[in-house]
Design a protein that fits this description.
Blueprint (H helix, E strand, L loop, with lengths): L6 E2 L3 E6 L2 E3 L2 H4 L5 E3 L6 E6 L9 E4 L5 E10 L4 E8 L3 H12 L1
Antiparallel strand pairs: 1-2, 2-5, 3-4, 5-6, 7-8
Length: 104
């Protein structure tokens, strides 16, 4: 997992784990280090800001949600709901094709 962006609310840090992946070793082979893992299900890690260990983290599967940049986030319902506004590369495999075409 590589972290490109994250966001935070008053109570939580929100970490996207996307289908878009980075493998720097591909540069050695003359390929783009950015790729797409089609088998992976995108998810969001919701971590209390003052968590004492990883057991307080929650990972929520979010199929098709590949946020390139988070814009804003906030808590609702007394902190029981976290709202995230982000730019989504919904079809990550199409994003990869565009990047490959631009590198030619």
């Amino acid at each position: 997992m590589s972290i490109h962006d994250f966001t935070a609310t008053e109570k939580y840090a929100v970490i996207p784990d996307m289908q878009i992946v980075v493998d720097p070793w591909l540069i050695v082979r003359g390929r783009s280090p950015v790729g797409v893992d089609r088998e992976k299900v995108a998810r969001l890690g919701v971590i209390p800001k003052y968590a004492e260990d990883e057991t307080e983290s929650v990972w929520i599967e979010a199929a098709g949600f590949n946020p390139l940049h988070c814009v804003n986030a906030w808590d609702e319902d007394g902190g029981d709901t976290v709202c995230v506004v982000a730019m989504n590369a919904a079809a990550a495999w199409k994003y990869k094709c565009i990047m490959q075409n631009q590198s030619n």
